Amino acid sequence: MSENRSTRNGKIELYRFIFSIYVLLFHYYRYLMQPVEIEEDFRFGFFLHGAMGVEFFFLVSGWLMAASVKKRIEPSADGSVKFDPAKGLAFMKRKYLSLMPKHIVAFIIAFIVFVMCKDLSGSSVVTAFINAVPNLLLIQNTGLSYSEPNHVEWYLSSMLIAMAVLYPILYKHYSAFARYVGPLIAVLLCGYMTYTDESLTGVFVWTGICFKSVLRAIAEITLGFTAYELSCYLASQKYSAAKRWGFTIAEFICFGLSTLFVASRLPIKYEAICLALLFIMVTLAFSGVSHGSRILSNKVCFFLGKLSLPIYLSQVAAINMTQRYYSQLPENQRVLTALVYTAIFSVMIMPADFLWKNLFTMDNKKNEK
Fold first, then answer.
1. Terminus-to-terminus CA distance in the chain, angstroms?
2. Alpha-carbon distance 177 to 222, whole Å?
3. What does the alpha-carbon distance between residue 367 and residue 369 come to, in Å, rounded to a whole number?
4. Any idea where the domains of the chain sit in the sequence?
């Protein structure tokens, strides 16, 4: 791992951007293109398994959460760790507020486009907004889901729910959970989802307790904890130049094979294998034992990483606009039109963090006066 673990990892930021594009193209295929049958052989499709990009996001979120928790653990005099609910609430507050600026702007855009595409007016708009409040608050994946103008935000909702559940367990039983219990639970959950639904991906499949997407988030964020522990171990060891090149090749192979799966027409039952490849890739990329981290820690990769969330959040509005107003265009032109709208909406979302911080800075200055 790089010497300063608190600094951003340019390689991970580049991966963020790449996997956000995979998710984007997967949704273009699903909503704007003629569907094809997924077959048993290895033929190429158009990002038929691009939804696996979310698995990458969950793993990274878990890694970052483990790093944050481990830094804040404070054992008592007898060596035991007591969980303070205030710390859990503070963590969730930081996470929730960090998402709000871009989420709110993206929600407004998606809601306006939703109203336009549905030709709503008057009281229908009010009703649509009331139904969309759980989406606005990012609590829709608790089951309180009436209408989702920006339905890809299920990812943020499931992530927040999973983190709220996992934080106290990880804080109080960090070593046992990150190194033993957590990965066991993750494998069992992944096995359960694959056996019952033949896949890891899927959002609003009800399991009897919660949506499948919440189990998906819990399993993969937990794997992120283990990835953090493994990356710390790898970073603590000394390696020869040959071994570092070996790690680099292994990381590249994992990325390449996962990309091939994303672009293939293989059955969805192999998603668990792709998740294993992503787990290895994330562990190696964060550990710093493979080459590329230093050269990729540059402004371009950091910018692309920042662009990944706006791209993700803007795709639904872009697809809805294309479906409603450009459905008569040929397939390739519909995809290109959606790309243009995605770019426009992403640019509108990008400044949200800056404006949000300035707004609160101004409020704080007024309060000080």
1. 45
2. 9
3. 5
4. 10-73+84-357
